């Protein structure tokens, strides 16, 4: 980690879910993935993503870019040899308390961050690191099309990492879109995991007992 602002720092996070935009130019149909919109019935228990949630995500991203990206990479792919690849989830299967202790006290070549980041910021940045791959995909493919709202995920999409990994679909994206055929399955899962993390209090640095 180091005090360098990342490439994406300051970019405004959009507030929608996933959709495939089709652009037609000179008779050529160009498919542009912009956002994941999740259609179908949404139960009362589904959680929509608010402006406050988006602000929390943006703040967590800024903390990571300003303090971690020089070594760990703004997209989670490490720059410093030996640093874990967060984009692949390396070392993130450890207990939350152990990971927070590593941030606060340091580990191997990483210095301690307890004096630079308060406990709320440490938890927020750890939560962001867990879904950093989905954030990069969302910014790359979704940001330019939607900026007004982000509906809750369809209840048809299973919860829990194991069930999601084994889910055979359908993903229930936009009507008539080809997103399921364009976006790699692992990227769709990364985006869904991100969208499910955004409303959670941990991204705001609020400690809860909830586990995925």
Give a short overview.
The chain is mainly alpha-helical. It has one domain (19-199): Cytochrome Bc1 Complex, Chain D, domain 2 (Orthogonal Bundle), CATH 1.10.760.10. It contains eight helices and two strands; from the N terminus they run E-E-H-H-H-H-H-H-H-H.
Which terms summarize this structure?
single chain; 212 residues; mainly alpha; Cytochrome Bc1 Complex, Chain D, domain 2; two-stranded antiparallel ribbon; 8 helices; 35% helix; globular; disordered N terminus
Describe this structure as you would to a colleague.
This protein is mainly alpha-helical and 212 residues long. The protein has one domain (19-199): Orthogonal Bundle (Cytochrome Bc1 Complex, Chain D, domain 2), CATH 1.10.760. It has 8 helices and 2 strands. β1 (19-25) and β2 (28-35) form a beta hairpin. α1 packs across α4 (119-130), α3 (96-105) packs across α4 and α5 packs across α8 (185-197). The protein is globular and about 45 Å long.
Secondary-structure-based class equals mainly alpha
Largest sheet: 2 strands, antiparallel
Q: Return the domain count.
A: 1
Q: Poorly predicted ranges (pLDDT <50, ≥5 residues)? A: 2-44
Distance between the termini: 27 Å
**CATH second-level architecture:** Orthogonal Bundle
Quaternary structure: single chain
Question: What fold name stands as the CATH topology?
Answer: Cytochrome Bc1 Complex, Chain D, domain 2
Relevant CATH superfamily: Cytochrome c-like domain
Mean pLDDT: 75
Given this structure, which CATH class is correct?
Mainly Alpha
Helix content: 25-40%
Q: What shape does the CA trace take?
A: globular
Q: Total number of β-strand segments?
A: 2
- Percentage beta strand: 5-15%
Order of helices and strands: EEHHHHHHHH
Tally of DSSP helical segments: 8
Rg value: 18 Å
* Lateral arrangement of strands in the main beta sheet: 1-2
